[in-house]
């Protein structure tokens, strides 16, 4: 019988939704901790699996975290709200922590620290759009951030990818770990209630 590590369901299933994850585990025939009747998915009993560790599904494997061979379960995107020219010397976001060294163009994108784009990612990582990479610049705000797009053809409504599958050359959680010093599960659980969640099965 296949089992799963009980920690998979704690802390809202590491940001993916405990009910959804429990349903998937049940459908795939995994056994482990079950929800306490009448208490909902957030209250779990203390029964632990007796399976050897090598036969237990771990959170790292289930969610495709760095160090596993699985595809990431989380894909985090935003949308371009506006595009504008930025002249040399002009700054963006709070305190103008970023000032353009030359004329360039920037885009305002949905996704800020309330959606899990933690503040320390500003000036430290890139996003992907239509196969191109663009750096996040300036300070990350609550619901938006700014990316530098240069001469790229970017329009309002374009999708921007914050996190994807590194096997396809997309931005990865490993980049975020290096930039922030946070652990992988700390970063994915930061994707909060203000982010719109879509389930892809």
Explain the overall architecture.
The longest helix is centred in the N-terminal third of the chain and has 10 residues, at 18-27. The protein has a 6-stranded antiparallel β-sheet, with no helix packed on it. It is 16% helix and 24% strand. The chain has helices spanning 10-14, 18-27, 59-62, 173-180, 184-188; strands at residues 2-4, 30-31, 56-57, 76-86, 91-92, 98-99, 104-110, 126-129, 132-137, 144-148, 159-163. The protein contains 5 helices and 11 strands; from the N terminus they run E-H-H-E-E-H-E-E-E-E-E-E-E-E-H-H. With 201 residues, the chain is α+β, with helices and mostly antiparallel strands. Residues 35-52 have low confidence and may be disordered. Strand 8 and strand 9 (132-137) form a beta hairpin.
List keywords for this structure.
alpha+beta; 6-stranded antiparallel β-sheet; 11 strands; 201 residues; 16% helix; 5 helices
